[in-house]
């Protein structure tokens, strides 16, 4: 592995004593501590972080880079909660500025993909009384009846906490009911920052960090899989980020139910924190790298390309990231409304594969549970044929 020589150089003395000790742990597949993570945030160069993170990435996945064909469905952007970082939601008193879909509306969206090879529908949205346990149970059942093989990845603990409390159901009862209705997995949203001194300021009123973790714990123990996120780059500091990842790592030690970790960059357009500057690309790449180094028991690190843009997403593949989410098909407004890099977040499968190939990585379409759907190693697209003269040349030159 190319990066092993660079790590050996760090260990041999080309770096501080602290960095040498951390590199030795990485090379020996030993867990780094919270103190190590803080040292990396505060002292390591981006180049050093890239060497360590890419070594782990390639140890786990080689050049493989994953994506899926998915679409997002957002029942409503009207919400009871007033998170200061959110540009997406609209208060009930301004609900005319938003949307509130019925089950029939959403089934029309699902049916719009009947002739397309999508494998996942991703469902999250605002919190309103009419979107309750019976509503989501009927929605999931309707989707499964119409298209049984479509994977339903739906709702965050923020939504589940509210609807279970309203229904006077325990988390255990509620998650079991959702599974029986057709829920296949959970997305990672709503995590924000777990530490209460930050969470109370940016997301006060909705489920706590402990409640977020408990709902995922219960889901994992029911045999389900889920993702995890962290919203960074607002009022939190490095200590809060490490604390957040530590709690995720501990739950993963306990259940093994998390599939991927997704750092989400705070965007400052149209929200109550618009006065805060956004993080620069160097900080974004640093965050991906440290997440890869710290979360040793997470198999995948994902960069959500619509949020950070295609170029930064490509760079992230050298800083620990092995997953770029999906084709999206311009079906989410959550991040575009906050000023994300991609204002029309849609890529064809060919565009996504080519984006991965241009940085000498190997594109693999996966399903939600990371089963291989299509390995694009030897696939030549129609648009490539004339340029390549129909020659049988390798698509990627490793």
Architecture overview:
The protein has 398 residues and is of the alpha/beta class. The chain folds into two domains: 2-61, no CATH class; 64-375, Aldolase class I (TIM Barrel). It is 43% helix and 13% strand. It has 16 helices and eleven strands. It has a four-stranded mixed β-sheet with strand order 9-1-10-11, with helices on one face. Strands 5-6-7-8 form a four-stranded parallel β-sheet. A three-stranded parallel β-sheet has the order 2-3-4, with helices on one face. Strand 6, helix 11 (238-255) and strand 7 (258-265) form a beta-alpha-beta unit. Helix 5 packs parallel to helix 6 and helix 6 (133-146) packs parallel to helix 8. The radius of gyration is 21 Å and the shape is globular. Residues 330-343 and 386-398 have low confidence and may be disordered.
Number of domains: 2
Reported for the largest beta sheet, the result is:
4 strands, mixed
Number of helices: 16
Calculate the mean pLDDT score and round it.
87
Q: How far is it from the N-terminal to the C-terminal residue, by CA?
A: 13 Å
Do you know the CATH architecture of the largest domain?
Alpha-Beta Barrel
Task: Determine the structural class based on helices, strands and strand pairing.
Answer: alpha/beta
How much of the residues is beta strand, in percent?
A: 5-15%
| Count of strand segments | 11
Helix content: 40-55%
Which homologous superfamily in CATH is the superfamily of the largest domain?
Answer: Aldolase class I
